[in-house]
Amino acid sequence: MSASGGQQGTDSRQNPQSAPQPEQPSDSHSEQSGVLRVGEAEADWTGDAQYFEYSRAANPIGAGITSQVPIRTFPAALHRGTATTVEVLDLSGDLNTPWPATSPALQAAFVVIQAGESLSTAARATSQLFYVLSGSGRSELDDQEIFWSKGDVIVVPMAASVLHSAQGRAVLYWVTDEPLMQYLGVAPISSRFSPTRFPADRIRHELDLIASDPRAMDRNRLSVLLGTAPQTQTLTITHVLWAMFGLLPTAAVQRPHRHQSVALDLIVQCEPGCFTLVGSTVNAEGEIERPTRVDWESGGAFVTPPGLWHAHYNESGSDAYLLPVQDAGLHTYLRSLDIRFVSPRSGR
């Protein structure tokens, strides 16, 4: 068999004596410059060409060729150790990627910094998000310095590395779009936004205003979406990332919705009895059929795959808070987010 998949004897490259000889260039300049004319090169670029019958290749995910994004939880125990370290929430084995990844486009990690210590993080990424799960400190990038404390959200554009220093022990939830860059085989060449900090007290204030609205409980989610000024088309925190700070009140049920972005959900605070139901279909009453239950844990995280319905429940007796981070900035720009909601009153 030849490299292009033909039978031996039918590819003239296998028998140079019988192959038509290319016309020799008469232009001495082309010989010196190395320019290849059509028909000159035996390496005719067909070696990697493949051909598929449409119905067998149109849906490689459904056929199992491209792996599904799994529902996966990551316990808070991952960031409770005594070492200064980065704990990557790595699903590269499930996603069949040669680089670390938590979803096809994003990587999440817990950054643990012990009191008085420092740690550098680096990513070949257009967007990095840090949520301060605990502690306080500062981050340095280029000639800039950002001070942070518990509950703050920080986004950083392309940067070779960021140096984090903690006053007391600190834990950061870190999300980047490096897997997307790795897949595309590219590196960012310009910043699409400025380093931005969202102070915890301002986030809570905005959420309180939303929750105090008389019609708040009619809404599919009680949350504040975080955005940066340059994202005028997507209204997202970066041009790739989407982030919200959400409230799940006591005894609340937040009805199902779905979208094509992957959600990397961080549970900021909850008591036992909070959970999410995830499934592929909803019935006529708007309930998820044959769901998978994901129990929440304070400081834990989980992955909600794209295209699946998911609903949140709080049976704990205390309010709960979460911070989902998604690649919905990119999906919104591509017009592929396809977000859908179940009506709060009448099913679908």
From TrEMBL:
Q: Which InterPro entries match?
A: GDO-like, RmlC-like_jellyroll, RmlC_Cupin_sf
Biased composition of type Polar residues is found at 1-33
Q: Where is the signal peptide?
A: none
Give positions of region: Disordered: 1-34
Q: Which Gene3D superfamilies match?
A: Jelly Rolls
GO MF terms, alphabetically ordered: dioxygenase activity
In Swiss-Prot or TrEMBL terms, this protein is called Unannotated protein
